[in-house]
Amino acid sequence: MSNQTEYKNRKVLILGLAVSGYSAAKVLKELGAEVTVNDYKDIDSSDEAKELRSLGITVVSGGHPLSLLDQPIDLLVKNPGIPYSNNLLKEAEKRDIPIITDVEVAYTISPSSLVAITGTNGKTTTTKMIESLLVAEPGEGHIYSVGNIGTPSTTVALHSNPEDTLVMEVSSFQLMGTKTFRPNIAVITNLHSAHLDYHGSREEYVEAKMAITKNQKAEDYLIYNHDQLELTNLVLSASEAQLIPFSRKSLLDKGVYLDGGVIYFNNEKIMDSSSIVLPGKHNLENALAAIAVAKLHNVTNQTIEKVFSHFHGVPHRMQFVDDIRERRFYNDSKATNSLATINALEGFQQKVILLAGGMDREDDLENLIPSFRNHVKALFTFGETKNKLLEVGKKAGISEQAAFETLSEAVYKAFEISEKYDVILLSPSCASWDAYANFEARGQDYIDTIRNIKSMMKKESKHPSECIIYENISNWWRYRRPYLSGSCADQTDESDE
């Protein structure tokens, strides 16, 4: 769809600045709209606010005053993270002001082909897989990864061409704010309960996810996880698109499936699954979905296999960080729910040292018990849910476990008790907002702590009887352990007491 004149002379209120709001404000202004930006935080002195004002955009910050709606408003573009329970949004709904999100704006102004990816888990990894596959065998146009990852969707959409392809990750928050959004190819990786603190009910969450296909027609495609009966029934009843299932567990007459370690598309052999270097059954499912998109774009089997043999994942999603003294560190900070952690644990053939914890959203964490019992040798927790997770670990029979105030402390302890060939995995099962701005910041803190350990290991004395003291970033907590022959277990250091 491409209707860049739709916003000319329209009065648009953008609720919430952030990256998406900042981009949407500039794009809509360029398209001739009268734009007002409102943010709850005081952003008046920020560089972004100054730039927007220089473009003739009104900026109101320090709250969400209802008086903003007293002026004529034709359209409200909300930041996806702001819930519909917000008083200004509720008042806008009463006044029948249309409320959309930035992905709807991007869709309406872009002439490009659109591949949209959603799901409870695996969205970002699948999006990057698809981007990598399409870039490896490009057509006449460009391939752009937009949305929750990459460049803001509105920025790219404004200047994209008909021969281009936008590969867009979309969340349930964004899909709730769509009206005409219609991807040429939609992908639903999986569907589980999540974000109920935002949506209020599972039914609303499912409805938001299914919005990805609500406007699709017979010439469009919907790729979905056939191994989930609920999702299969939903797409069969709700979608007019051509359905392409993928399955890790069943043989299919049509679609992408696994049979004896070989991946097939419509009964054509594509590649051996062993060529996929990214670990985990869930990542195999992500790959199956991405392969379906690739085949619709006529990517050759040889290229598909080559891409997956070099695709090592996305930062903060089962990311290999480093190997220190033959202990391997993995960063799965994006695992913000228990299912994501279960998938991560099942991706390893050995029991791991697990670091978990974060914001308490009152989720039921007891479904972790079987995976903890089968895949975790030691558990170190942090954040608001640290004690809840210890209870889960106790029920799973994990004897080596402890709770810490910070992630960094948990990392140091994990390294202290680790042995050669151990895997140390950050897979929190919880959101990051109790201590971090986002999961990326949490993952970076983990990486920085690992780098700190590695740096200190380089300073280790070569004398076999000496201990090295590692001091964590909070400057008050120390631990010590010998890493060469000999023991220092009875030594103490009270210099910081």
TrEMBL record:
Residues 117-294 form the Mur ligase central domain. Signal peptide: none annotated. It is an enzyme of class 6 (ligase). ATP binds at G119, T120, N121, G122, K123, T124, T125. Its EC number is 6.3.2.9. GO terms for biological process: cell division; cell wall organization; peptidoglycan biosynthetic process; regulation of cell shape. One of its GO terms (cellular component) is cytoplasm. It catalyses: UDP-N-acetyl-alpha-D-muramoyl-L-alanine + D-glutamate + ATP = UDP-N-acetyl-alpha-D-muramoyl-L-alanyl-D-glutamate + ADP + phosphate + H(+). Cell wall formation. Catalyzes the addition of glutamate to the nucleotide precursor UDP-N-acetylmuramoyl-L-alanine (UMA). This is UDP-N-acetylmuramoylalanine--D-glutamate ligase. It comes from Alkalibacterium thalassium. The gene is murD.
